[in-house]
């Protein structure tokens, strides 16, 4: 992993990656699997600040290819609006764009860059826990099936996933916080065996189709970015500028979750905290305001300086926790 200097170090005012957004866009792309927690809201605020401060449009995309919980989208959009975020144009839904993803898989297939994979989750787990397997990478089991073996698998009736026939073990992306970051590119899934387009493919197709050239999101997705950028390059699509920001953690240093107390806007409201109070908490966590100071998004935009962005995770402590 190559962590280079934090923003500000060695990059002068001439670094136009911070302000080349005249016609581009940033975005927030939640999966509608439940309520947004304060860490998600904080990421949305940061993505909005990065986009608006560079003259970019800010787009919302609902990533509803799986993990959809009824009512979650409405509550997520309502919460984003309640803390003052605005966005441009219609909210885009991945579930309504299946043809685009199919077309991308078809293009890669015509170029000889895909293969059918019959592995079960269990088989992959067993193969990747072998002593010499690279961590987190598909070992390529089905890449080398002979025509006969493939026929036998087909005949057995298990529908295949479609994988990318990757030509690179690694790929390097540029991240505004992490510098140049090199990560594994394995034979990632493009279409799952239930026919659903895979997340990595959908993100790449959508970011390009929506004119998104700035991707700000949680750093749990940093290791996915090289795969996505490589896929974009193979498809002849543009690769965005990335900023993977530290996640919100609970008091034990684990990723913030529902059980960590008053973590949603609704939970906070039940404690008497308004959405504006929550925005204040987020602003203080970003060092853009003093604790308890009343803020608004325009004020935060005025104060925003990405070079002073805190690189440590935000530890959320529930003020009413025992
Ligand atoms: N939908 C993904 C999530 O909620 C985010 C995808 C992205 O930002 O690329 O974790």
UniProtKB/TrEMBL annotation:
User: Which stretches of sequence are listed as region Disordered?
Assistant: 1-32
E.C. numbers: 6.1.1.-
- Which keywords belong to this entry? Aminoacyl-tRNA synthetase, ATP-binding, Ligase, Metal-binding, Nucleotide-binding, Protein biosynthesis, Zinc
| SUPFAM superfamilies found in the cross-reference section | Nucleotidylyl transferase
Tell me which residues bind ATP.
Answer: 258
Cofactor comment: Binds 1 zinc ion per subunit.
Name the Gene3D superfamilies for this protein.
Answer: HUPs (3.40.50.620)
- In this entry, which stretches build a coiled coil? none
NCBIfam families referenced in this protein's UniProt entry, alphabetically: PRK05710.1-3 (NF004314), PRK05710.1-4 (NF004315), queuosine_YadB (TIGR03838)
| Family according to the record | Belongs to the class-I aminoacyl-tRNA synthetase family. GluQ subfamily.
The identity of this protein, by name, is: Glutamyl-Q tRNA(Asp) synthetase
């Amino acid at each position: 992993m190559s962590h280079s200097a934090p923003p500000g170090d060695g990059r002068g005012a001439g670094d136009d990656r911070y302000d080349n957004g005249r016609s581009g866009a940033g975005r927030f792309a939640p999966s509608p699997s439940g309520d947004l927690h304060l860490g998600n809201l904080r990421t949305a605020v940061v993505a909005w600040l990065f986009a608006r401060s560079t003259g970019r449009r800010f787009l919302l995309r609902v990533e509803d290819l799986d993990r959809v919980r009824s009512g979650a989208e409405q509550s997520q959009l309502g919460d984003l609006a309640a803390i003052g975020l605005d966005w441009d144009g219609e909210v885009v839904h991945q579930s309504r764009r299946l043809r685009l993803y199919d077309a991308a898989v078809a293009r890669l297939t015509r170029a000889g860059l895909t293969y059918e994979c019959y592995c079960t989750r269990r088989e992959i787990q067993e193969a990747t826990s072998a002593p010499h397997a690279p961590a987190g990478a598909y070992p390529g089991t089905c890449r080398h099936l002979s025509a006969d073996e493939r026929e036998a698998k087909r005949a057995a009736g298990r529908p295949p996933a479609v994988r990318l026939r990757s030509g690179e073990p690694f790929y390097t992306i540029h991240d505004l916080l992490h510098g140049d970051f090199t990560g594994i590119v394995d034979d990632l899934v493009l279409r799952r065996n239930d026919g659903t387009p895979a997340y990595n493919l959908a993100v790449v197709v959508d970011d390009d189709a929506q004119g998104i050239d700035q991707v700000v999101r949680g750093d749990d997705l940093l290791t996915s970015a090289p795969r996505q950028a490589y896929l974009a390059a193979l498809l002849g699509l543009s690769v965005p500028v990335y900023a993977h920001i530290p996640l919100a953690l609970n008091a034990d240093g684990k990723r913030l979750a529902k059980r960590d107390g008053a973590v949603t806007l609704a939970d906070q409201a039940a404690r008497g905290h308004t959405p504006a109070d929550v925005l204040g908490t987020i602003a203080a966590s970003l060092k853009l305001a003093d604790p308890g100071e009343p803020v608004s998004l325009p004020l935060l935009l005025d104060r925003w300086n990405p070079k002073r962005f805190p690189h440590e995770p935000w530890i959320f402590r529930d003020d009413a926790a025992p």
